Amino acid sequence: MVDEVLSQNEIDALLSAITSGEMDAEELKKEENEKKVRVYDFKRALRFSKDQIRSISRIHENYARLLTTFFSAKLRTYVNISVASVDQIPFEEFIRSIPKMTVLNIYSVAPLEGNVLMEVNPNIAYGLLDLILGGKGNSVNKIDNLTEIETILMSQLFEKAIYKLKEAWSTIVEINPVLEEFEVNPQFLQMVSPNETVVVVSLNTEIGGTSGMINICIPHIVLEPIISKLSVHYWMQTNTKKRDPEAFEKLSKNIQHAQVEAKAILGEATITIQEFINLSKSDVIALKNPIDHPLTLTINNEPKFYIQPGKYNNNMSVQILSEIKGEK
Hints:
Number of strands: 10
Organism: Virgibacillus alimentarius
Number of helices: 11
Family: Belongs to the FliM family.
InterPro entries: CheC-like_sf (IPR028976), Flag_FliM (IPR001689), FliN-like_C (IPR001543), SpoA-like_sf (IPR036429)
Subcellular location: Bacterial flagellum basal body; Cell membrane
Protein name: Flagellar motor switch protein FliM
CATH architecture of the largest domain: 3-Layer(aba) Sandwich
């Protein structure tokens, strides 16, 4: 609980009231010492800590980026998706907050229990459908009169969109999201009990000239087995885990067989275009390197060693004298 900071005028008024007898200092002390009671609503039980909510937000920020890339490539238009908020509320409150007729996609997320719900604002859903069918992304809200073809096209689109959630959650748990049901009326949803706590991730969505919200509703039963992984301590442990010796050795051996280009640079010179045009047989170009200085050996055009030229088994060769020390 944050202490309230009083202004100078409030302090002066308080001192004046105590001095004049309007307020008793002993009563103030007594009131301060009394236990303060805070009303607790059991219907809005908070079952996730702020730390866990931040972790869920971080996961879905990654999902928003992946979804932006997916829709941009699929629809060939401007797409911008970002996390607006992450809240934990009763399921009943979430159902009341969404439109009476909207696009509802219900996904199973094996091996986790329960289902995840994605609610897509009708403006966004019809904008997507119009773009798929070759339009400009115009939105017409007739969600209660979806044709069979429109239903199939929407289902296929959101079935592919949820695959990106698997990638976003992979840092915590491996899931296999599958579209189980496509619905338009929230009243027919009976995922969990009305008082069950759910996490609602709201995504601000702009597709072409249309904007709206995509809400992802995750019941507590889905997150319960992985709650321990939704903490900073787990993320820090994951990020600082030791290197796998077997994998490191295998990677090192594979890298040793990679081919690189080695060049022995005899020297360099700078000439004018006129001199280059007038070059002819037997002309001599003086290099900048003195004859008694070592040459340079480059690996993939990066200078790595000082060398000297010579012969080895009647082949032209170079001998390494020293390594070139650099920032890398």
